[in-house]
Amino acid sequence: MNSISSAPPPLVRVTRGGLTESLHRGSILVVEASGRQIAALGDPEEMVFLRSAAKPLQALPVIETGAADRFGLTPAEMAVMCGSLNGQDFQVAAVRSILDKIGLKPTALDCGVHRTHGAS
């Protein structure tokens, strides 16, 4: 999709007081396990990147392997594994707590905190 005129169809409309607050567009493709297309909305050929949407899936092995129970991970610590972070103090505290529980130091991470504007 290269032009505004070929924008993906609206998928979600968020309203507040009867007015549209935001409109979220996208494409949906439903396939069978074999890869055969069952249904589509929008452009099923559109190239997309999962980015943050994949984080909950990447955290699943922590639960499925029993690591969450083994290390006593809290809901807040699991949440920090599943979301996009902006370096807020509570997020940093959760990550440090996870590292402590698994016996690692912050230097084990490849990057540090990268705060966004307005983050505290």
Low-confidence regions: none
Counted beta strands = 4
Order of helices and strands: EEEEHHHH
Shape summary: extended
Task: Please tell me the overall pLDDT.
Answer: 87
The portion of residues assigned to helices is: 25-40%
Q: Give, in spatial order, the strands making up the sheet with the most strands.
A: 1-2
Biggest sheet features = 2 strands, antiparallel
Number of helices: 4
Overview features:
about 120 residues, single chain, extended, 4 strands, two-stranded antiparallel sheet, 4 helices, alpha+beta
Describe this structure in words.
The chain is α+β, with helices and mostly antiparallel strands and 120 residues long. It contains 4 helices and 4 strands, in the order ββββαααα. It has a two-stranded antiparallel sheet. A two-stranded antiparallel sheet has the order 3-4. The chain is extended, with a radius of gyration of 19 Å. The two termini are 37 Å apart.
